[in-house]
Amino acid sequence: MEKKIIVMLIAVLCFSVPSFGLGFMGPPKAGLEQGQFGAGINYSYSKMDLEFANVATGEVQTNILAVDIGYGIMNQWEGFARLGFAKVEQDDIGFDGGNKFTYGFGTKVTFIEQEPISWGGLLQINWFEGDDTISGFDVDFDAYEMQIAIGPTYEADSMRIYGGPFLHLVDGDLSASGVLPGWGAVSGSVDIEQESVFGGYIGAQFDLAENTTASVEVQFTGDAWAITGGIGWGF
To answer: Which CATH number does the domain housing residue 168 bear?
Structure first.
């Protein structure tokens, strides 16, 4: 029993190191004019396959639901803030981080504005946290992730196709502590960082009405994939 719990502690720490979701990005270019406000609701679902020294295998799942508030700083430059909830789960070891508050910010810049293809980039940072109790062990994490993307946006009538490569950087801390009979209090902690730095994504954005759009996209890195989407409004 003691060995099983110790193995579980190690598995919790190692499974959770790269287990953060890929957030919605949208077109890698500014979409708001100078002085214009925008808002959006977006959702992201991601999975990551992990294995640790043949001790255990499984999938980490992350759900993110967030609201973005944006502002056009210049005609080719916008910034936004993000507020929402994120849930990180690992079914095999029973980790459920719960629906925790997440927040972040980002910016988008258009480098080359022309028809039908424009070029730009984006940067966004999101903060996550979560905690759970597994077999008497308290497990919690606190981390942030950064996504940096650059690429083209192709415009055709009432839709846009976009995508490109991106960097995915994660940093933070995860710890677990508890009491083992005959051992007393035990604990462990690890630094959180990404498994794969490089990724790519592709998406489509559609005009639903004046100043209203819907987007759907797929993201992938060397060890994870995500399906994300959202609805945005300009004011």
So the answer is: 2.40.128
Instruction: Output the six-digit token pair for 101.
Output: 């508050």
- How far apart CA 162 and CA 148 sit, in angstroms, is 15
Q: What is the residue-wise DSSP string for 60-86?
A: EEEEEEEEEEEEEEETTEEEEEEEEEE
- pLDDT of 20: 62
Q: How many domains does the chain have?
A: 1
CA distances from 147 to 57, 113, 125, 187, 220 (A): 27, 22, 7, 31, 12
95 alpha-carbon distance from chain centroid: 18
- pTM of the shown model: 0.86
Domain span at 141:
2-234
Write the pLDDT tens digit of every residue in 174-189: 777 877 777 778 777 7
Token pair listed for 156:
């055709």
